[in-house]
Fold this protein.
Amino acid sequence: MKEALVIFAKNAEAGKVKTRLAASIGEEAALSIYQQLLSHTASITNDLPVDKFVFYSSYIAQRDAWDDKHFVKQVQEGNDLGERMKNAFTAIFEKGYNKIVIIGTDCPELKADIILNAFTHLSSQDVVIGPAADGGYYLLGMKQPNSPLFENIRWSTNVVFDETIVKCEALKLHYFLLPVLKDIDREEDLQYFKSENNVQHYHTDI
C-alpha cells in the first residue's frame, strides 16, 4: 500500500495566520504561536514512514520548518478549505497512493502515534476522522476520493465534524474516530495549553 501524509500549512505571515487568536493577543504574538505549532507538526511527522507532502496556502517557502529531504512541497488550489482539501486528495490519489491522511498545523496534542493509528485503521475502514474539541476535525484519512465530504460543509464552524459524519453515513462509508483533541484557535485555547497541567512551552515572547 502506498501511503501519503498531506499537511495543510498556511504561510507564516503576520496578519494571515491565527486571525481569531490575533484579535485578542496581537498579530505578532499570534504569528509566534503559529510558528511554534508549525515546528511541533514538523517534528512529529518528520520521521513517519510514509511519503509526506506539505501544501502551502499561498506559495512554497524555502528554509522553513519543512526539510526538503523529508517533505515534498506544493501549493493549495481552490476557493475554500473544502475545495483545497478535495483537490489535494485528488492530486495525491492520482500519484498512485491508496491511503492518504491529511492534517493541519493547529493541534499541539497531535502525536506521531495517532497519525500512524489513522493509517492502520484505513486498512479496514473507508474513512478515519480525528475530531477536534471545537467541532471541527484535525485529521481526515481516506482510501479513495470521496468528493462529497468536502462539499456544502460550513467550514471554520463548530458543525464541521457533525456535517462530515452525516455525509459519511449518507454515502454508507465505514468510518473510525480517533481521540478528540484540542486545537489552538482562540486565546482561551492558548491559556489551556499554558496551564499547569498541560503543554508548557507555548509562549508569546517575541
Summary: The two ends are 44 Å apart (CA to CA).
